[in-house]
Amino acid sequence: MSYGVRNTLILLIVLIAFIGAGWSYIYFYQLPKIEELEEKVEETQQELDKKQQIADAFPALQKQFEKAKSFFNNYNKALYGDSNEDIVYDFLNSVSVGSAYTDFTFSFDDSTTHGQYGVMNMSISGQGYYRNFVNFIRQLELSKPLNKITGISINPINELESYGKVNFNFKISSFYDRVKLLGEPNLAIENNLLGSVYNPFFPLIRSVKGNKNNLVNIEQSKLLAISGDQVFVLDQNGVMKKLSKGEEVYLGTLTSIDVNEGTATFNLNKGGIVEQVTLQINKDDEKQSGN
To answer: In which band, very low, low, confident or very high, does the pLDDT at 108 lie, cut at 50, 70 and 90?
Structure first.
């Protein structure tokens, strides 16, 4: 074999080796890579399509969310922000002011969950004027936070210095938001206070307070003289006192003076029993009439 043919055969073998190596590289390495990349491109395209659908739906969803949020914030009731009972206690304190003021104690009972909301259960007891207690309950029920009041018990305080006051206790269930989807609620207090409230527990007949200030006791006094819009009486202690129309006496006031008749009339409130007592000059006995 000549030198030229040998070299040609060597080059041909080398060329075939290069071609074989290149084909093997493409077939066994690059083709799987290409297929893998094509699969990734397809998956990425699908993910892109999904995100594009979400992006296309976002304006409508945003509008729906804002509408729901506006409805939530403007609704006449709202859930507490979380299950911390201190929030409820602080709200009760903020309600118990002015004509809704009461002295109360607060005890936490338990908390339960119900899906997207939960309930805190607490016991409240205390005392205060009946009108204030009614306003306290009205504020709790009519304000923004959602509170349910049950088991109200009221007992009057039958003591001379505490007429109009009552002891009370009740259960309160406060509802709170567990998901906070629409943000923090507005826990505003609605002012629904009543200026005048009839107290069914106020006794019609009450104990009569003692004459601590040593006021003129008309039933133990004698009318001595009348001068214009003033009268002079000898009181229960034997001391002459001057009284003007409208002036306070024990259990009442001087309401009228009749110079011509020589009389002075007093209205007395004897623990709910109203009497009109008239004293007359030179008369030892007074005339009485009950209303």
So the answer is: very high
Closest listed residue to residue 124, CA positions, set 142, 144, 102, 146: 102
The gap from C-alpha 239 to its chain's centroid, in whole angstroms, comes to 56
Taking each helix axis from N to C end, the angle separating 130-142 and 85-95, rounded to the nearest 10 degrees, works out to 130
Q: How many Å is the maximal CA-CA distance in the chain?
A: 176
Q: How far apart are CA 127 and CA 168, in angstroms?
A: 6
Task: Give strand pairing partners of 5.
Answer: none
Q: How many CB atoms lie within 10 A of CB 138?
A: 18
Which residues lie below 8 Å from residue 265, measured CB to CB, with a gap of 6+? 254, 255, 256, 257, 258, 276, 277, 278
d(CA 277, CA 126): 41
Extract the runs of DSSP E, i.e. beta strands, from the chain.
Answer: 103-114, 117-129, 147-156, 165-177, 222-227, 230-234, 240-244, 248-249, 252-258, 263-270, 273-280, 287-290
Whether 130 and 171 have beta carbons less than 8 Å apart is answered as no
The number of beta carbons lying within 10 Å of the beta carbon of residue 240 is 12
Residue that is written with structure tokens 């297929």 in the block: 35
pLDDT tens per residue across span 162-221:
678 999 999 999 999 888 765 666 677 777 677 667 777 766 666 677 888 889 998 889
Tokens of 281: 């000059």
CA 215 – CA 126 distance, rounded (Å): 36
Per-residue pLDDT tens over the stretch 243-287: 998 899 998 999 999 888 899 999 988 877 788 899 988 765 444
Number of Cβ within a 10 Å radius of residue 132: 23
